[in-house]
Design brief:
Blueprint: H1 6-9, E1 21-26, H2 36-43, E2 57-62, H3 70-83, E3 87-92, H4 102-111, H5 116-119, E4 129-137, E5 140-147, H6 148-151, E6 155-161, H7 176-181, H8 186-200, H9 202-216, E7 219-227, E8 233-240, H10 244-258, E9 266-272, H11 286-289, E10 304-310, E11 329-331, H12 332-337, H13 340-350, E12 360-362, H14 365-376, E13 386-389, E14 397-401, E15 412-423, E16 426-431
Parallel strand pairs: 2-3, 2-6, 6-7, 9-10, 9-13, 11-12
Antiparallel strand pairs: 1-14, 1-15, 4-5, 7-8, 13-14, 15-16
Helix pairs in contact: 2-3, 8-9
Pfam family, one: DUF362
Domain DUF362: 73-235
Protein name: DUF362 domain-containing protein
């Protein structure tokens, strides 16, 4: 596809005067676990491995998210399993991520620092599943699939964090229950789940499928994590099988209290340097940007963001640009990073097709910013409310337009005054 060059569109929108910017540090009070790996090893004692013989295979299910120290935590769980006399095997529990291929799921784990050599354990990334049953959710029949690799093991331990989901709100969102049903369902299971959830409700689909999966798997339990504002571990807990949906609502409430959010809720333009699956399942955390863009699920009331400009993809997402459709504007450099096979595999499996749409593609930063400011209508550099962040996971250091400074909460401190400049169309901030 040929996108317009700067010379093709430069005359269409006049340059806009830029506001002054402040570089700020956002540091709300948070709790943190000093050594998450040690905590995970200790928590594993709460799970019941009785009845397993020495040499039994234990599948450690790990997802695709950029969880804080997930490589260290996975290594600690694998070592704890081996120290009990069992044989650990890592099973990717990430639905269709990595392009729905074994090689792609290996690649995703490697980007997170999880490799066979690092963990001294094999990774079984087969995409094979078994349909173990069919459940009815509302008016929809839901075929429940389970990973063959997990089903062939003698025991399964799931490792994941509890956090607000990027598509819906409910008393069960992202966590052990969802990873067990969706992640270990691989592409077939994830597709069946999302097709049902969009029509009948996510919580309803999870609660119907989880008991079926638990009966089909030798599930011992899971190690669950809660992260704080800085995306560091605030809590580690092992939950036995059969108790996921009992315990997760309280942990989800804590995750909501601890989660990273923007320091203001009324924003004219949000600029995001990078999006990716390692940042959020939706590329950008929809709870941070206030956009689900999912059928039958209204967007959050807050924050209110008029326009969003996404500048590029993270390296770790390996071209999976699912979530770029949440932006209003992007640039050619971001489109050049896209791997459409991976992006489409993710969107087609989730049924959330809006996240894979292409927004307006600007030739460079300068024209993208010019376009955004013009599109705001009645633009005034003395009142415009702009927030510029690296990604929706890293909200500690950011830039805000000067008119926003007086509205910042007390946990935000101005560290510098800077000007937005462009060199060859690429934006950067420079001290005044």
């Amino acid at each position: 596809m040929n996108f317009p060059d700067r010379g093709d569109v430069d005359h269409l929108i006049d340059p806009q005067p830029l506001p002054d910017f402040a570089r700020v540090q956002y540091e709300p009070e948070t709790a943190a676990v000093g050594d998450p790996s040690t905590a995970a090893r200790a928590e594993l004692d709460r799970l019941d491995f009785d009845g397993l013989e020495s040499g039994a295979t234990v599948a450690v299910a790990v997802g695709s998210r950029g969880i804080h120290h997930i490589d260290d935590i996975a290594e600690a769980v694998v070592k704890a399993v081996r120290d009990r006399g069992f044989e650990p095997v890592v099973v990717p529990a990430m639905g269709s991520h990595g392009g729905a291929t074994p090689e792609g799921q290996h690649e995703v784990l490697e980007s997170l620092g999880i490799t066979e050599s690092r963990l001294d354990a094999p990774i079984d990334a087969r995409m094979d599943t078994t349909q173990v049953d069919t459940v009815t959710v509302g008016d929809t029949e839901f075929p429940v699939h389970v990973s063959t690799a997990a089903r062939e093991s003698d025991a399964v331990v799931v490792v994941n964090r509890v956090k607000p989901h990027t598509n819906y709100s409910g008393h069960i969102e992202s966590g052990l229950a969802k990873m067990t049903v969706v992640g270990l369902g691989k592409q077939h299971g994830a597709k069946a789940f999302h097709s049902t959830a969009i029509n009948e409700g996510y919580v309803e689909a999870l609660e119907a499928a989880l008991p079926v999966v638990e009966s089909a798997l030798p599930l011992v339990g899971g190690v669950v994590l809660v992260e704080n504002f800085h995306e560091k571990t605030a809590h580690v807990e092992a939950i036995p099988a059969g108790s996921f949906t009992d315990r997760e609502p309280a942990l989800l409430e804590r995750a909501y209290d601890e989660m990273a959010t923007l320091p203001v809720e009324d924003i004219d333009l949000l600029v995001v340097d990078e999006l990716g699956k390692d940042v959020s399942g939706a590329g950008m955390d929809t709870n941070v940007i206030g956009r689900y863009r999912v059928l039958n699920a209204p967007d959050p009331d807050e924050p209110s963001i008029k326009l969003l400009y996404a500048r590029g993809l993270t390296e770790a997402t390996k071209g999976n640009g699912n979530g770029i459709g949440l932006a209003d504007i992007t640039r050619r450099a971001a489109v050049d990073q896209l791997d459409l096979q991976k992006t489409y595999a993710n969107a087609l499996t989730s049924g959330s097709t809006a996240k894979a749409k292409l927004p307006l593609v600007a030739p460079d930063d300068e024209f993208a910013i010019r376009t955004a400011l013009s599109a705001l209508g009645g633009y005034d550099p003395d009142t415009v409310r702009i927030v510029w962040i690296r990604n929706t996971q890293d909200l500690s250091t950011l830039h805000v337009s000067e008119p926003l400074v007086d509205d910042l909460p007390t946990a935000v401190a101005v560290t510098d005054r800077e000007s937005l400049t462009f060199a060859d169309g690429t934006a950067s901030f420079a001290r005044e």
